[in-house]
Amino acid sequence: MSILELHNISLRFGGVVALDDVSLNVPAGMTFGxxxxxxxxxxxxxxxxxxxxxxxxxxxxxxxxxxxPWPIATSVGYGIVRTFQQTRAFLGLxxxxxxxxxxAVSPQPEMIGDLVDACGLxxxxxxxxxxxxxxxxxxxxxxxxxxxxxxxxxxxxPAVGLSGDELERLGxxxxxxxxxxxTILLIEHNVRFLMDLSDRVAVLDRGRLLFEGTPEECQxxxxxxxxxxxxxxxxxxx
Amino acid sequence: MRPxxxxxxxxxxxxxxxxxxxxxNDYFLYVVTIGAIFAVLAVSFDLLLGYTGYLSLxxxxxxxxxxxxxxxxxxxxxxxFLPAMLFAGLFTGLVGALIALVAFRTKxxxxxxxxxxxxxxxxxxFLIAAPLTGGIGGFIGIPSPNVPAWLPVRQVVYNALLAFxxxxxxxxxxxxxxxxxxxxxxxxxREDITLAQALGIRVGWPRFAAFALSATFxxxxxxxFAALSNFIAPESFTVLGTGFELVALVVVGGLxxxxxxxxxxxxxxxxxxxxxxxxxxxxxxxxxxxxxFIIFYPRGIASIxxxxxxxxxxxxxxxxxxx
Amino acid sequence: AELIIGELHPITGPASFYGLPESRGVQLAVGxxxxxxxxxxxxxxxxxxxxTEDTQxxxxxxxxxxxxLQAENxxxxxxxxxxxxxxGLMPIIAKSDMTQIIDGSIADGITNGKNIFRNQxxxxxxxxxxxxxxxxxxxxxxxxxxxxxxxxxxxxxEALSNSLGEMGTTIAQQEYYKLGDTDFSAAMTNVAGxxxxxLVIRGYPAEGALITKQARQLGFQGQIVWEMVAPPSTxxxxxxxxxxxxxxxxxxxxxxxxxxxxxxxxKILAEAYxxxxxEQVGELTGLSYDAVYIYKAAFEKAGSIDNAKVNEAxxxxxxxxxxxxxxxxxxxxxxxxxxxxxxxxxxxxxxxxKGEAWEPADLGN
Amino acid sequence: xxxLPQQLMNGLALGSTYAMxxxxxxLIFGVLLIPNFAHGEFYMLGAFITYTLxxxxxxxxxxxxxxxxxxxxxxxxLDRVAFKPIEMAPPLSLMISAxxxxxxxxxxxxxxxGTEARTIPxxxxxxxxxxxxxxxxxxLTIIGVLMVACVAIWGLLHHTALGLSIRATAQNRDAAMLxxxxxxxxxFATFAIGALLGAVAGALLGAxxxxxxxxxxxxxxxxxxxxxxxxxxxxKGAVLGGLVLGIAEVLxxxxxxxxxxxxxxxxLLVCVLLIRPNGLFGRVQMER
Amino acid sequence: xxxxxxxxxxxGKMTILHGLSLSLHPRTATVILGxxxxxxxxxxxxxxxxxxxxxxxxxxxxxxxxGASPAARVRxxxxxxxxxRQVFPDLxxxxxxxxxxFVHGMPDQDAFDRIYxxxxxxxxxxxxxAGLLSGGEQQMLALARALxxxxxxxxxxxPSQGLAPxxxxxxxxxxxxxAESGVTVLMVEQNLKLAEMVAQRVAIMEHGACTLEGxxxxxxxxxxxxxxxLGKKR
Lengths: 238, 323, 365, 288, 234
Ligand SMILES: Nc1ncnc2c1ncn2[C@@H]1O[C@H](COP(=O)(O)OP(=O)(O)OP(=O)(O)O)[C@@H](O)[C@H]1O
Ligand SMILES: Nc1ncnc2c1ncn2[C@@H]1O[C@H](COP(=O)(O)OP(=O)(O)OP(=O)(O)O)[C@@H](O)[C@H]1O
Ligand SMILES: [Mg+2]
Ligand SMILES: [Mg+2]
Description:
The complex is a heteropentamer.
Chain A: E1 2-13, E2 16-27, E3 31-35, H1 42-50, E4 57-62, E5 65-68, H2 72-78, E6 80-82, H3 95-105, H4 112-118, H5 134-146, E7 152-156, H6 164-179, E8 183-187, H7 191-197, E9 200-205, E10 208-213, H8 215-220, H9 222-229
Parallel strand pairs in A: 3-8, 3-9, 6-7, 7-8
Antiparallel strand pairs in A: 1-2, 1-4, 4-5, 9-10
Helix pairs in contact in A: 3-5
Chain D: H1 4-32, H2 39-55, H3 60-83, H4 91-113, E1 127-129, E2 134-136, H5 137-159, H6 161-171, H7 173-178, H8 183-206, H9 217-230, H10 235-256, H11 261-275
Antiparallel strand pairs in D: 1-2
Chain E: E1 2-11, E2 14-24, E3 29-33, H1 40-48, E4 55-60, E5 63-64, H2 70-76, E6 78-81, H3 93-100, H4 109-118, H5 120-124, H6 135-148, E7 153-157, H7 165-180, E8 184-188, H8 192-198, E9 201-206, E10 209-215, H9 216-221, H10 223-228
Helix pairs in contact in E: 3-6, 7-8
């Protein structure tokens, strides 16, 4: 069963066609990978789903509710939560204060403690967010989103700038939520990371849906190799 | 332990202030009373500026709304002071809520200037609505608060006690607000409104509540000011005077803390009095001291005290650790 | 022994242009009295100690200043200047055992004749001269341009237009501006359009000069009448003298006017001021200077420095009791200086601008 | 609607004075994010120094040029003392610093010139009587200077390297430094232009209006209104906002009541911001 | 060429770099590897002058530049591509590029053409406001802008951030070309593909100091590095 259905979403900015008749079904409980060349429209799609920008045309069904997309406040109420490509947290506040805000909006404030451990924030609780190491900041951004107990989590390039242990930690985290039944829409240019985690993958190119299928099919699809992975798609070796 | 400390410190400071008001002379008492009223203003103002991130320049006018409201109720309708003050506060809160509805369509400097406009309109209305306010000639004959029979103190002392009590209540109420979920939401609005929205915070409510609450206490401060001055005139409620002075109090005290603005208010009301000795140079000296302070402590008194506090803490633990 | 007099004037801030010369007037008089050996009250001779506090023309600062004076045991007060301040001090002083002589504000109704007196005119006093002018010149229509930040003028606006109306003058236009405004073109366009026979400007001279200029530029042809304290030196700094020719002014004479009338006391005061402070005497200096001598006469008459007695003496003081007065007050019917509510009778006179200064106007009656 | 052409012209002339003051303020705020309340004091000093020089016998235009240099120097000093040391502090601290600086400058002016109002002897007397309206030569000069200033600033910002570096700094200080842009030069240039505009406005307006040490306070508030009315960071907005405000004030004073001149102007501000929360020409910030 | 000796730097009271020493070989691309948060970005910012060094010294071609302003360093040819998207959002793409050549006066059309040939998407978007570009497009713009300065030392802080694999390859080639044309390159990078593609020398950073530096093949094949950074585990 699909938790999210997009029907013929189009959006243009002046002359730029950012989304061109995109239709997509995201099955419940799975991690859905979204890739595509730079400027393909991935972030724009997240903006549309989360309600930050209304599309020019098209509609969205979420969890049986028709007439989407909704304004952002409504979407969040329905359980659609996003992170931002450019990491966003309350930069002027300490981590503790950030989490206090998270607790204020969370339906289950008592689980914030868990999140702190899972995201590895315990040692940096009293530091100002703007001074955090990059990885910790990314995790904080994700912790804020998770505090809302989303049903659909939109992750826009969460792994940017992460390496080694940090990347692994993020991978573990995502798996855990998947197990907890959260549906995840994951945008990521780290192909290995994305393919490892995703159950299904869609590829956007210049606003159009180019491909949709399993990660394996995706990596051998010539169109995808041509437009996105490149012949030296060696990052993907197993 | 913490709740005990939480209430112990402000309440004991309040008791000390009340006790000392029996001692000091009328002049100091007046300065301190005015300082306390400005502290009420500053704390209310900081709820909006420091915790929610909106600079309202309409507060000078809101202060006036409370003052005139109290004047009309007590002088014309014979209402006793305390209910009049409450009523004035509620009325001002209502006016504030209306302003908030309009002003929160904008943010940043746009909000500041929009409220500046509203503040100026308010001041002009005090002038124009002469039948209600007395116009430029001022509102004359506002009765002083009645000293209750069981309290054997003089009027001026009673005025001071009222101001201290109002300050204490304001502080406690504002602190409760700040610590509530609303307070957390306000912080989120201040730091990053898009992220706040993305987190499902209905940003309209917390900032609206902050504005209305801030206006309510601003109105009560105005009411008290009116009652202890016996006379008010539009000149006390200008944007250039009161409006900007509030910003100075809060910034000098320390933005985003509730006790910082209290210190800022006391310092900046005492300063011009201390500078009376400088006679014709007093304004110049005031400007120079303000500039000096802000250049060296751009984050206000609160930042100095915090630094001292942490240094003290470090020194103590260092000493203990050494033993 | 020492007798303390407090004075409360705006010696800093924008109003210090008027406040500082007042403060200095007090200083001059006190200096003179002390140099002459002080005041002999009863058997004791007192020298006067002067304590100055600033009001910045703001009510709260002024109240704090007053409380400070009270804390320093000051019983006699001169000041304040501003109409926005005096009502703020009134409830405190009325309840206290102090005595006050107001030497500034021209707003109505701030004296009580018990312990609060005023030796400055009220606007109603100014208005009498306006009425006199209109009686003589029989202008058929008039426009007003009033400083709406001026409590005094705003307070009498209605009464004045009523009395002119009763004489048959049409009120063609009522316009307002505020202190510090610089553009009056909208109002003056309307005034010039209606072209009344006279335009009465009520406020301060800088704006007065500017309004006069703009009215003429926009084609206003009628008579311009000022109602404001306007020392020629200030006027000339703001408007070329040709453009002032023939403008009327309706206020009580100031020190400068008395000097022009060859008044000995005024000349001495002006010179002393110049010698001590290096500037031209201010237009209100005479009033504050007089206030000190009024106190002196009252002390001597009461023979005591007890406030109740001095208040009584002040209330009954005759103009003739104070020979040092520079300002020429009209005695009350019984010769007293103050009327029952503590107000002197100081009436405006009509003067006209000729060349570089005001001169008494010949109204031809 | 009697005298409408004349009233519109009155509004235009008044609006030009607002625009003139707003221009410099807008530049400094747009580039350095300093809410420079002391801009009113540039204006005041421009008027007073020109006054002193003309009274000392200088030709008005020469006096104005000398004044501009002096005020630029003062602007530079002000930046050095009041703003540069706390450039990293929150903008509100900068605002308090500006307010303090403005008190100091006013008081210094009081010590030098006293608080008596005066007017600079006008270099251009006389009026130009067109068929339906009258404008003084001085008003015409102000409108002319405003137009010249707009074109000059626009050209500077959009067609010179200095202008490009100013615009770049306004958007991303760090990145601008990484492009080899000297921060100090940009700062200096911005303050110099801002102070210059303030000084010229002061000299021209001081020849029409009375001048006194606190004369800057009112206009600087109006200038902030204009800044926001037009849209922050838009020079076009600053000019048109000024004109709109001027015309609105005159129309209210002319056809409703001069008692409501200010109320009318600020009601207009409120209405405009209700319809366009980012001013007439301000852009809505995109969030991504 | 560029010598860093005993460099110390940090934010406020917090010291991040503890006596870091490193010398860059002329006309060579050096890649810095290290875990998140060791101070790689801090190093780049200190070298380009955005952060003041608290101790140690940086010299360029024998001249001490430790106290020089960022602008002076750019004029000397030291140019940084900052981490994250540091474009001028309200300026057009072309104006952003134009600013790249700021220290050389007005660039000719050739200079633009060379860049557009490298990044065709920027040509398409040349009159769009840079702030409206997608994340990856902004990253390309930042790199392109730095190339416009005609650098002699190019500091790259994670240039692959947010780039699609094809684009990573593209800029890999571009950087290699630049290095071959005689520019000294210092690149901080997490993307191993790009690092391996570009690196001639590799430095390893730990706890605010460089612990190992040498030719790329040697360092990358050393066991310690294999385990710690190249993630044998994966
Ligand atoms: N507000 C806007 N105005 C004009 N063009 C825009 C706007 N927002 C996005 N675009 C353009 O739309 C296209 C899609 O942008 P989007 O940010 O969705 O790309 P993306 O797939 O997320 O790319 P990346 O992987 O680089 O983040 C880009 O070419 C971008 O330049
Ligand atoms: N503005 C700042 N104020 C205070 N501390 C900071 C600031 N920026 C970074 N830090 C701290 O400096 C340390 C080093 O940061 P830096 O960004 O240099 O690391 P990095 O090696 O580039 O990491 P990454 O790989 O995540 O980009 C981090 O621990 C971080 O917390
Ligand atoms: Mg994107
Ligand atoms: Mg980094």
